[in-house]
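Now for our specimen.

. . .
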Amino acid sequence: MTDFYIEHPKLFVSVDCIVFGFEENKLKLLIGRRKMDPGRGEWSLYGGFVGQNESLTDAAKRVLFNLTGLDKIYMKQVGAFGAVDRDPGERVISVAYCALINVQDYDNRLLEKYGVEWVDINKLPRLYSDHNLMVKKAISLLRLHLSSEPLSFNLLPELFTLTQLQKVYEGILGEEIDKRNFRKRVKMMDFIEKTDEIDKVTSRRGAALYRFNKKAYLEDPTFKL
């Protein structure tokens, strides 16, 4: 520490992670009960304070890795939240980050370790402080970029059915999509490849499985779905 800026008050900076997953054909959010005051016992996003020698991104990656056990996952800054009275404990400015993960990759033992659970975004409880606002803004950003970035594939397993892909889109958009038009547009995407494998778990009749070809996408990243 130095003697610079000693005339100014010191503030706390934290990161809050908005972790979305896709399960049971629903878009879900990872939340838990706060284990600290203020707000102990309230539903909350998972977060932490930024360390003295950490960047915001490094702090978010650390918090996400601790919570999910996963690295190299999709993560994007949602925005800064700094209302004077947002935290009744101290003056805390929080920077929210959105993450998309495949629930199948998540170690369920971490649910118990951190006391978190997957909750349908349409059935979210009242969250601590301004966390509901953070989630609302994150969903708005996902909707804004859904048709121009291959976001949905971060929520799906490597092999997926077109029904699963459509359900992801509907979960993010919050509305139903015409099945015929959706599949017609999907077939125009070279980077959504049909495989020879069949899904006999989620589909009684056996649905074809598809995969996202990242290389094909990067060669022609023009994306509109």
Summary: The helical segments are 56-68, 109-114, 131-145, 162-173, 179-186, 214-219. The chain has six helices and nine strands. The CA atoms of residues 81 and 94 lie 5 Å apart. The first helix runs from residue 56 to 68.
